[in-house]
Each structure stands twice: as C-alpha cells, then as structure tokens.
Write a structure and sequence with these properties.
The chain is of the alpha+beta class and 848 residues long. The protein contains 20 helices and 40 strands. The strands form eight sheets. The chain has an eight-stranded mixed sheet. Strands 9-2-1-13-21-19 form a six-stranded mixed sheet, sandwiched between helices. Strand 36 and strand 37 form a beta hairpin. Helix 3 packs across helix 10 and helix 15 crosses helix 16.
Length: 848
C-alpha cells in the first residue's frame, strides 16, 4: 500500500511533457528526474542556459528521491560541505519562493539537534559551533540540562548519559515531492518523463599514447519510438542506476555500490511537537530521528548493511524491499536507549529502498576521465536532499564556465585511483565501511580499515615494514606515515590507528616521539623519505613544449635544459588544481611529478590538450607504477650521496638534474627539496633497482627513515604549501604569494588555461601563518579567526613544528572582513574548542 501511495504521490507533478516534442539537438541533456537532476537543470536555467532538457525514464522523484526523509542540515566538519548545505538551505527556505507559481517548497523549520554522549563528541561539536560563527549559521552549544530541556519530556534525565548537544534552530526538513515540484515550476527547462535512455553515442580520438572518447548524442525511447538527440554534454543524475547509464557511454565501472537503506515511522508519541521538536542526529548511537507529525521517522547506519549492486539493472523506479528487522533492529534499540518511550511505541510504516554509496562516503561528480562531455553526478550516500541545492548550482557552473567556484576536489570522481575503480572487492568493502562509520568522529589522521590488501604497494613495502614503518593510504597507495621507534614490540594496524583517534597529541605518545626523531634527523643530519606514491609522467615529442606551455603559467621556453621548476595546473577559473615538479630535459622531453591525490587531474589535463588541439608526434605516459622516488634531505645529505656512489657533486647546482649510473642502475638525480635547504631526489625503477639504492643509502648509519607525517610538517615549516592538500581549486596563486609563478606576458595574451582569473570580489583572500602565543594549544583546523570581536577567516590546516616545539597553522583571511584596516592585523584571536587564544599572524609568501 505504501508503494502504491508513493507512485500516485510522485506522478502528480505536472511536467506537461505530453505536449512537447523532443529536440534534435541541445546543449545539455540531464539524465534523471530526482532532486539532483532537477536542481541541476534549475541552476542551468538560472545561468541563462536554456537549450537543455531533462529525461526521466519514469516519473519525477522516482528512484530514490521519493523515499528520502528530507533532512536539511548545514553543519559538517568541511568547508565544502558547509557551503553546499548552506546553498540548499537558502534554496528551499527562500530563493525558490521568489519564483512565480511556487507557493511552497515543503520546508519545515523545526530546527536540528546533534546529540553527544562523550566529551570527545562534544569537542567535535565545539569545532562545528566555532566554524558556524564564521559562516553566519546560528547555533548553540548545549550542556546536558539544556539538551534535555529542549527535548522535554522525551528524555529520561535520571537514566540519560547525554553529555550535551549542538542546536541549529534554522535547520529542518523538506518534503521531497513539494521540493521537486517547486524546482520543476521554477526551472525554464523542458522535462520529458517516460523517456528512458537507450544508448549514448561517442567518438574516439587517439594520440600516440592517449585515448579519449567524446559525447556526440544520446538515444531515448519516447512515446514508443527511438529519438537521437545531438549533444556534447550529458549529466548522469540517475542515482542507483548511474553505473548502468555510464556503461552506455563506454564507461565500464564507477566506484559506486547500491545498498538497502531503511527508516520506520512510529505511531504518534506524546511530547513530539511538529513545529518545535527538532530533528535529531545522534552520532554516537548512529541514528537520525526526523519529526513526522507527532511521530518520529527513525533511520540509521547499521554496521552490516545489505549490498544489492548486482541487482541494479533489475530495480524498477519505485522498488521497495521488505525491511530486514534483524539488521535494522539495532537502530530501534539505540533509539529506545535515547528515548525509552520509543521502545513501547508501535511502528505504523516502514520504508526500505535502494540507495547509492561510495568508498569514501562522498558523491561522484565531474567530467569522466576518459569520456569528455560525460559528467557524473550520483552516489549521494543518503545525503542527496541536503546537498542538492549546492550540488546543482556547482554542476551548472562547472558545465557553463568550465569549473565550479568552490573546491570540489574531494567530490570529483577523478579522486580515485584509476586502477581501483573496477576492483569490486575494494569497492564493496570500502563502501560498507564508509556506510557503517558515517557517524564516527572525524579525526585529523583518520584511516580506512578494510580492503588494504587490494591497494597498491611499492617494492620497498616489506623492507620498510620490517624497519617499523606505519603505513597510511592515499589515493589507493600505501605511503610510509611514520616509523615506530619501538618496532621490536609492534602494534596491530588497528592499534596504530587508534593512537590517532584524538584531538590531542601528547608529547609522550608513540607516534609523536617517532615524528620528532625524523624531523630532528632532517634538521641535523640526514633523513630518507620514500615518495614513490607520487604521480610520475613523461611528456615526450616535438610538440611537448606546446602542450606544457598551454597548461602552466610559467614561461617554459626560458627554463634551461636539465633544470627543475615548480609550477601549477589551474582550472579555467584560475583555481589551483595541482602542484607539479617539472624536470625539463630539453624542449621535447619533460619528466613530471605531482602529489598522489590530483594525479588524474594532471593526466586528464594533458590528454585533453593533446586530443582537443590535435597535437601530433607527442606522447604523455603515466609512469606512476613504473618509477619510484627516494628523497634524501638534511645538512649531511650531499656527503651521504658522495660516499654511497663515489661521485663528486660540487658542480651540481640547486634545481638541476642529470642521470647517473650505479651498478648498472640508471638514477635520475635531482637537486631539489621541499623540506630542507639541502636535499636530493633519486628517481629509479620501482623494482629491484629501488631496493638496491635504498639499501645502499641506509648502510650509512646517519641516515634515518622518515614518513609523510614528518615530511608534511617539515614542508610547512619551510613555508611550502602544496597544491591540493593545502592549496585548493578555489584558491588563486596570488592568495598564497605565488604570483612569481605567473609569466605576465603569457597572462596578458591568455596563453595558458586559467589565465582569465574569474571570481567574485568577496572571495578575495590571503593565506596567513598562525603562531599561537600559548605554545601548548592544539589547533585542528576550521577554527575561526577573530579580530575586533568579528570573525575574519578560519584555520585551513594545522601542523606541529618540532623545531619550534609548538602547534602552528595556516589559515585564510578574506579581504572583505578587513577593509577598515590598513593591511593585515598583527595579532588575532583563534577560537579553539570554545576558548579564545591570542596568536601572531603574517601573510604567506610561499618559498617554492
């Protein structure tokens, strides 16, 4: 009966598609008539992009939108999430209501309440409460008494273990049907229902070593006949069916899995007040309660969800399943722990439907790595309603201007290692883990536990393990994190990870001592880092300079042969996509390294230029798995190299490179360091050559093994901010004092991608170094920066300087908040866990 009601309910949205004729061509085709697809076409129309259609195989809201619980929250421990969620809140509470014919969006403003059962959870809420002040989101940190009073009479004070809560009075929930109806009325876009996609036509372009396809047309079945529509852009908003649609475009697999996700609606409960009782997220109990009249709609994240990806192509648009009470029961048990009255209240309705999830619990967005014009916009991890307004806005800007105007790197489908996306063991295990840990506390060094044997290791993996290496994973690759000084009494992987489950890092802890030891070696003698996880590429051919010159702001032609330079890959708005270290061999040959996370961005950018510009006789080769990097740093690093390889390095200038031979092994030796005044990189084959070179270097007893934790601390200490990790796609080079990387003539002539800087004046900002006067305070990130009793920015990232023996950080301050003073203030206050801490700041001028 509930399924029949939903079908009737959703089909009552009038799209008037029966009177419309499908166009023969259009600029954009959006596939999927749920809230994400509708938000995307609405925002495209807002940008004046009207030659757009939306096709839906059944009815508007069918799929997963119709059975969503509709929660609208704004506070998350992420700059990007807060911006996206705030846009949704603005859309449903204000903006849509300004359109003619839109009388309601179905938004109910009953407030939102996060509950905590531990001091650590309250610390997390203190961080959220702090960043909320910067973004102007009204919120209140409540103690136990205040929390219970807000929920009175639903909580039994005597038996409650609540520690407190975080209350956001302007949050609420939205009716999915009414919201979609409002979007449909407001969007000046043709919408075609009962119009399934049958095929996607692409053409293949191929260079010497790169291959890409490009969207040309889409074929649909409408009114019992096939129609081909010419288009160069398709946006895949088809939810759990996104993998099926992607295959039509020749994309064999995307990292998305389908699971059963459920909620139940209780019988009416005395004390539940529709307009006053807030919606509840109890992260410690992994449950969510939404007000539904005088009842609660109860859902949660079970530790062992049911995977049903293998049934995707057999699911109809209104599929529901019988509720698995054995699995869902834990959510009811936890709800009854919170509110005993729930344990004695009946259930009047259940909903168990398909939802799509990803290995890191973030959506899949952006243009496909191998199919130009095919944009992914799916897998919202049961968070689609909350993100819909912000995502639709950013997808529209991405399509129209070539880039979103906020940082979506963590959402871009290219964030995943391209060698893992078709690995179903990895995808299944990670999706289940991400689902089960969704409400866990997010600590600065959080790591996944599952599918680690499916990810990639280099030739040194076992040797470094025997030397006490504690590995972390980035981009599907094992990276040395730190080396345990107590390796003769090792811990399990889970125990090592548990050491980092804290917002505090006492100096006596195991990893602290190890990282301090590694940093000390870099300052005083020599430390060896394994940087093999970095991406490595070779650009070779008669038009190689033409390709790289179009992609970077530097004047590549003026760089001498056998020199090394730092540059940046920019998006079309001028935002920083990746930092690249380029070793120029000659005008026709370049060896390029980049951080692991943006490696697919780099690969896609070079391939696009080669294919789109029809560049001949030039190869771009991904050598990431073939090559390895060892980085030797410290005042004695040159002495170590000379002794190990019996060579003189007196004539080896900084930022130059050459090939040397040792025991028939070719080594590209680069005099370059991000962490020390003296340092070297050794690039060798990732095989027995790597083992031999590592063994040779470490026979010198002054050489200490170092991990990425020390490397990043030393790098920031050296005033080096890295692209992607520190500098993001909504940051410009000028924000971090990197204008010297831009050749003025190239910019004036618009000779590189990103030369036409494009952002609102209110987004102009400056990076600042932050040094708290109290050297014992612990900065974690997202703390607001205060000046004259007003927030002017926030901390982007923290790092501990073992040289200075204190926590330092860098943050961003927006110019719009300091117009009334001449330049930057010398001192500010940093709000850390609710307490104001005085700090000295200075503007960042990066030294790379």
């Amino acid at each position: 009966m509930y399924r029949q009601f939903a079908r009737f309910y959703s089909t009552s949205i009038n799209t008037r598609s029966a009177t419309k004729v499908l166009p023969k061509s259009c600029d954009v085709v959006v596939v999927g008539g749920g809230v994400i697809g509708l938000s995307t076409v609405y925002h495209l129309s807002e940008l004046g992009y009207n030659n757009v259609i939306l096709v839906e195989r059944d009815e508007i809201t069918s799929g997963t939108t119709w059975h969503s619980n509709g929660l609208v929250w704004r506070l998350r421990p992420s700059e990007t999430d807060i911006k996206l969620l705030t846009q949704t809140h603005h859309l449903v509470s204000k903006k849509l209501l300004t359109h003619p014919g839109v009388e309601t969006t179905g938004f109910i403003n009953n407030g939102g309440l996060f509950l905590a059962h531990s001091d650590q959870r309250m610390q997390e809420y203190q961080r959220l409460h702090g960043i909320a002040k910067y973004y102007g989101i009204e919120s209140y940190l409540l103690d136990k008494r205040q929390t219970i009073d807000l929920l009175s009479p639903l909580i039994d004070e005597k038996n409650s273990d609540l520690a407190g809560g975080l209350y956001s009075p302007n949050d609420g929930y939205v009716d999915p049907y009414m919201y979609c109806s409002a979007l449909t009325k407001a969007a000046n876009i043709n919408i075609f229902t009962k119009c399934p996609v049958i095929g996607i036509n692409t053409t293949e372009s191929q260079g010497i070593s790169v291959r890409q396809s490009k969207v040309n047309a889409i074929t649909v079945d409408y009114n019992n006949s096939l129609h081909e529509i010419k288009t160069n852009v398709i946006v895949n908003c088809s939810g759990v069916w996104a993998p099926v649609v992607a295959k039509l475009a020749g994309i064999p697999s995307i990292p998305q899995e389908t699971m059963e996700h459920s909620y139940v609606i209780t019988q009416p409960i005395d004390g539940v007040k529709p307009d006053r009782t807030p919606n509840i997220r109890d992260h410690d109990l992994s449950i969510a309660l939404r007000v539904s009249g005088q009842s609660f709609c109860i859902g949660g994240y079970e530790p062992d969800p049911v995977l049903i990806s293998h049934r995707n192509d057999k699911l109809d648009p209104f599929t529901l399943f019988d509720l698995n009470w054995d699995k869902f029961g834990i959510n009811l048990e936890n709800s009854a722990k919170l509110m005993p009255v729930i344990g004695s209240t009946g259930i009047k309705a259940t909903t168990c439907g398909p939802e799509s999830f990803t290995p890191d619990h973030r959506p899949l967005l952006g243009e496909d790595l191998n199919v130009r014009g095919f944009f992914h916009c799916s897998a919202f991890n049961s968070f689609g309603i909350s993100l819909s307004g912000g995502i639709g806005q950013q997808m529209a800007k991405w399509i129209v201007t070539g880039a979103p105007d906020i940082d979506l790197t963590a959402y871009d489908i290219k964030r995943f290692n391209k060698h893992l996306v078709s690995n179903k063991v990895w995808s299944n295990e990670r999706c289940v883990e991400a689902y089960a840990r969704n409400y866990g506390i997010i600590y600065p060094f959080d790591e996944p536990f599952t599918a680690r044997t499916e990810t990639y290791t280099d030739s040194l993996h076992e040797i470094l393990l025997s030397n006490g290496c504690v590995y972390r994973e980035r981009h599907g690759i094992h990276c040395p994190d730190w080396f345990d000084l107590e390796r003769h009494s090792p811990l399990t992987y889970e125990q090592y990870m548990d050491l980092d489950n804290t917002y505090d890092w006492p100096e006596e802890c195991r990893q602290w001592k190890a990282i301090k030891y590694e940093c000390k070696a870099c300052h005083e003698e020599a430390v060896l880092f394994n940087l093999t996880s970095k991406a490595k590429f070779s650009l070779i051919g008669v038009n190689a300079m033409k390709v790289i010159n179009k992609l970077v702001p530097n004047d590549v032609q003026s760089v001498p042969n056998n020199h090394t330079f730092v540059t940046y890959l920019l998006n079309k708005r001028g935002g920083i996509m990746a930092e690249m270290i380029v070793n120029k061999i000659d005008d026709n040959s370049y060896y390029i390294t980049a951080a692991d996370m943006p490696s697919n961005q780099v690969y896609a950018a070079f391939c696009n230029v080669i294919i789109v510009d029809s560049v001949k006789d030039t190869e771009f080769i991904d050598m990431s798995q073939e090559m390895a990097i060892l980085s030797l740093n410290g005042p004695k690093s040159t002495e170590v190299l000379q002794q190990c390889f019996n060579i003189s390095l007196n004539d080896f200038n900084d930022r130059t490179h050459r090939e040397i031979m040792f025991d028939d092994i070719i080594i590209r030796l680069v005099r370059f360091s991000q962490v020390s005044h003296t340092g070297w990189e050794l690039h060798v084959k990732n095989n027995s050559d790597l083992i031999k070179i590592y063994t040779r270097l470490t026979t010198n007893k002054i050489v200490v093994n170092g991990g990425y934790r020390a490397y990043e601390s030393l790098k920031n200490e050296n005033q080096w901010l890295s692209g992607c990790l520190d500098l993001r796609s909504d940051d410009f080079l000028s924000d971090a004092g990197l204008q010297t990387c831009i050749n003025e003539r190239k910019q004036q002539l618009k000779h590189f991608i990103g030369s036409d800087l494009n952002r609102d004046v209110d987004e102009t900002k400056r990076f600042v170094w932050i040094k708290p006067l109290n050297n014992k305070v612990m900065v974690c990130g997202l703390e607001p920066i205060w000046f004259k009793s007003r927030p002017i920015g926030f901390v982007r990232r923290n790092f501990y300087s073992h040289k200075n023996q204190q926590m330092l950080a860098f943050g961003i301050i927006y110019d719009k908040h300091i117009k009334d003073i001449n330049g930057l203030p010398l001192e500010v206050d940093i709000e850390i866990f609710g307490q104001m801490n005085r700090a000295i700041i200075e503007q960042v001028f990066c030294k790379q």
